[in-house]
Amino acid sequence: MKFEKVRWGIIGCGDVTEVKSGPAFQKIENSELVAVMRRTGELAKDYAERHGVAKWYDDGDALIKDPDVDAIYIATPPGSHKEYTIKAAQAGKPVYVEKPMARNFAECQEMVNACKEAGVPLYVAYYRRAMPRFMKIKKLLEQKAIGDVRFISTIQYQKASADVKDHNKLPWRVEPELAGGGLFFDLASHTLDLFDFLLGPIKEVKGFASNQGGYYRAEDIVTGTYLFQSGIHGVGSWCFSAFENVDVNEIVGSQGKITFSTFGNEPVVLTTANGTEQWSFEPPQHVHQPLIETIMADLTGKEAHYLSTGMSGARTNWVMDEMVKNYY
């Protein structure tokens, strides 16, 4: 399936599409955003007018069926990712779906199978793997800058935000029916996908999930260990009811280590016996744009690197499922 130009439609033109992703579809060569959808029609209309989009809908099925829409970006909460992906696939349209890919691995498998049967590509919005800072880490690993990788460790914790303390109106990100789990699914998924990108697939996982803060039903702390297919070990702790915000990953090798954050803008630091080096990167204005450029290359028949596909996205969901299965 190759295109000369791709006309995109967005299902769920909410906050994430305002700056992070939506404008990028208009700025990339041979790409155009032609339609948007939101359940509240007035909000869809407002988005379309502000972003110069020709059409708006309050019904996802109508957007999918629009003959002027070639490909679908699904930016709803994960609870509806499977439904819209399958419908888009059945309409013969490529899919770019937000992360996490779905609420669980089983839903991911259904999405992958539907797109495979329809002969359409499926991409997942793990956009960090195409950002310059993480491509630098990938290059350092390929250059054996730290020798042979031994293990990777992650510590990510943060304060409980005010919105999760409002029991009358909890955000969807901590509602398992919509998100698959708690903030672990929303945030740790980025880190775990990066590990898949940097070090290859994980083959074995053991984890523990609990709720310590008591602000909502979903888990708010997860600790896990994992073994990569390559033999590399990994350990991680994620807590969302701590006293401060911390985000640190370390890849440790036989001759050095690489230290970096998933969400911050701190420098990437390489430490070896020769001392330290560090590299700073300004985040793109539209953080999805490097990945969407890669997707556009794939859709228009050009060479595409660092793709985030349905297969890789499903692997991340599998790892998360394994880590929290004692809780649900």
How would you characterize the overall build of this protein?
This protein has helices at residues 24-27, 41-51, 60-65, 81-90, 105-118, 132-142, 176-179, 183-199, 289-299, 310-324; strands spanning 6-11, 31-37, 55-57, 71-74, 95-97, 122-124, 149-157, 202-210, 221-228, 233-239, 246-253, 256-260, 268-272, 275-279. The chain is of the alpha/beta class. It has two domains: 6-127, 3-Layer(aba) Sandwich (Rossmann fold); 132-283, Dihydrodipicolinate Reductase, domain 2. It has an eight-stranded mixed β-sheet with strand order 8-9-10-7-11-12-13-14, with helices on one face. Strands 3-2-1-4-5-6 form a six-stranded parallel β-sheet, with helices on both faces. The model has no long low-confidence stretch (mean pLDDT 97).
CATH class division of the largest domain: Alpha Beta
Which strands sit side by side, in order, in the main sheet? Answer: 8-9-10-7-11-12-13-14
Shape: globular
SSE string: EHEHEHEHEHEHEHHEEEEEEEHH
**Termini separation:** 39 Å
Low-confidence stretches: none
Put the structure in a nutshell.
With 328 residues, the chain is α/β, with parallel strands linked by helices. Helices cover 31% and strands 25% of the residues. The model has no long low-confidence stretch (mean pLDDT 97).
Annotate the secondary structure layout.
Layout: E1 6-11, H1 24-27, E2 31-37, H2 41-51, E3 55-57, H3 60-65, E4 71-74, H4 81-90, E5 95-97, H5 105-118, E6 122-124, H6 132-142, E7 149-157, H7 176-179, H8 183-199, E8 202-210, E9 221-228, E10 233-239, E11 246-253, E12 256-260, E13 268-272, E14 275-279, H9 289-299, H10 310-324
Helix pairs in contact: 4-5, 5-10, 8-10
